[in-house]
């Protein structure tokens, strides 16, 4: 029992708490459950109205509650604690370094100038808070300077005005030690001033300087708290006029407490929560300082028979001479340090590695495709498709749901723009090698599983069928002797919100929603045909047999062509190929140059192109994007529309190919961003006036007005869209207006630079993830610091 009382609890608790503070300072922004711009808005849930402020521990989504504006207090604290900890550390390091250095040299002077002692005495009576107040008040309210500049300014000023007290303390300690016999002995033996200071005096002061360092951190936090009482928050104060209110820009802990003082008679938790964290922060450093003091004092008592007037309660750590340092086995204090360091490292690594796990909409179905396609001389296809499926959800599956779009074009289909029809004949459907029952209605293929597929388990679905393509079809099409295989195989639907997310096919906008998958495709063609696909490793022209692969793509497109001329170029290491017939009036070289200019522009301004090659096929049919390949109709009457189509489809390689979305329920996300990116190409790269660059988007909106269609939200499902202008034009125009209205919030410069930086940051944030309206809002609200209501005129922001 006596051993328990002799443990230095202050030290170990202090070290643990300070380690937690440092961890939160490093990773708090990542751990925060929400962004700083996200607010809880009033809503009905189960007949109950939920509105801010939320009390702590009443909603699991907001464990520490919210303030009256709906901002999560835990998020504010996790973002703000790094400023409190790091600023106090920076000020302390700076003033301790200056004060110690000056104090050591002044303390070894033969005679300290009288004016210096007088200054020290006078300065000790001046409240430093008052001095800081007058330095900060002219620049802190609604500041013109950036928060980082205000922080640096505070660090420098606070360190400089605090340094004299450090100099005084260090000087007095130095003078005492300088009178010691061992210093006189060293001086008599010829030691110079520098050697005496750093080899004899400084080692005697390490312990006291360490304690002073920790206590000075507490002192800096105290000064920040005092400033907060007069609404001066480190990093800047936002002051509103009607009513007069004050808000911390950085959300540092003292600022959160200062701005919450008005809640003392109302929503008290808004004040209590950050105040408790601020007190815990100062307590952590105080415990560490007290623990270090106990530790150093007890260690001085290694010879208990020599009375020093201090009787240690703690067990002193005695130095054992003649024994080397043993690092293993770890025990006692070394074991404690090792465990703490391991927890810090592994926790930090885990937090950083998983920082983007909550970004994007989750899909809980995973597929890997092994496809084998054979084409005979009559243009008929014999296809074997193996799909390795994995259940990533918590639910057990009793069926697999696939898109099988070729069946939508069977004889008797209702699509007037499609000249022919497809012919499909399944010869076998297997699950793990055994015959399986299935149903096929329109484009919905459901396969029954022989037993439930549990979480983490896999199943292999194998399909054998023959296929004839519809003449001049929609994406899946035969145009003379050219064959275009788009969505030609069973594509696994996504599994979201506990169910298969499968919408019905409609001709026009895309309706299939698939995840990112890996593909292996074997092919065999008649003589005279070439194989062009989504793979980066397409074979040479007229190679009749082979195998290709593609990784992390959303679907796999194949063009089987004959007698097409090929043009080649490259852009920043990406091979660009253009395939075309010669029965149209478009100049292939101009089209190829436009494709190169477009891809180069997006590579330089948005991000890395996801493939090694880009193929453009000019032929009759829809303008359409696929991973690594686009098709463009060269028979348009308008030159500008042909150019827009090339730029638009290449932009889709970023916004569809890499940043995914649900094309049935959220078609605006890829189409709107793509049209916005295309408009920016013409506005920035081609230097067209804004009205000309956005001409297509403006024309779409004019056609909506001419049709007397009332307003519709862009985030409307495909089967409810009244006009495609709401999917393409409205988002493109609104996104540019968003940038135009708020570009000043960013440090990117003018509107053009901010627009492209926004696209780049959006692309890189959601790369290989799925975005919905809520994810878009969460990112964009935080990016431009705009409220949710800013988007209410064109998005239904209430949709979950």
Report the β-strand fraction as a percent range.
15-25%
From the alpha-carbon coordinates, what is the Rg to the nearest angstrom?
35 Å
Pairing-aware structural class of the strands and helices?
alpha+beta
Round the mean pLDDT to the nearest integer and report it: 91
Low-confidence stretches: none
Number of helices: 19
The shape is: elongated
Folded structure, characterized:
Helices cover 41% and strands 19% of the residues. α2 packs parallel to α11 (332-353). The two termini are 58 Å apart. A hairpin with a 2-residue loop joins β25 (624-626) and β26. The longest helix is centred in the first third of the chain and has 37 residues, at 193-229. The mean pLDDT is 91. It is an alpha+beta fold and 800 residues long.
Q: What's the short story on this structure?
A:
This protein is of the alpha+beta class and 800 residues long. It contains 19 helices and 28 strands.
How would you summarize the topology of this molecule?
Elements: H1 2-5, H2 9-31, E1 43-45, E2 48-50, H3 73-107, H4 114-123, H5 128-140, H6 147-178, H7 181-188, H8 193-229, E3 237-241, E4 244-248, H9 253-259, H10 269-299, H11 332-353, E5 365-375, E6 380-391, E7 397-403, E8 423-431, E9 434-435, E10 438-441, E11 444-453, E12 458-468, E13 477-479, E14 482-485, E15 491-492, E16 494-496, E17 499-501, E18 517-524, E19 530-533, E20 545-553, E21 558-561, E22 565-571, E23 574-580, H12 588-605, E24 613-618, E25 624-626, E26 629-632, H13 639-651, E27 659-661, H14 668-685, H15 690-693, H16 695-706, H17 729-742, H18 751-765, E28 769-771, H19 773-784
Parallel strand pairs: 5-18, 23-24, 24-26, 27-28
Antiparallel strand pairs: 1-2, 3-4, 5-6, 6-12, 7-11, 7-15, 8-9, 8-12, 10-11, 13-14, 14-21, 16-17, 18-20, 19-21, 22-23, 25-26
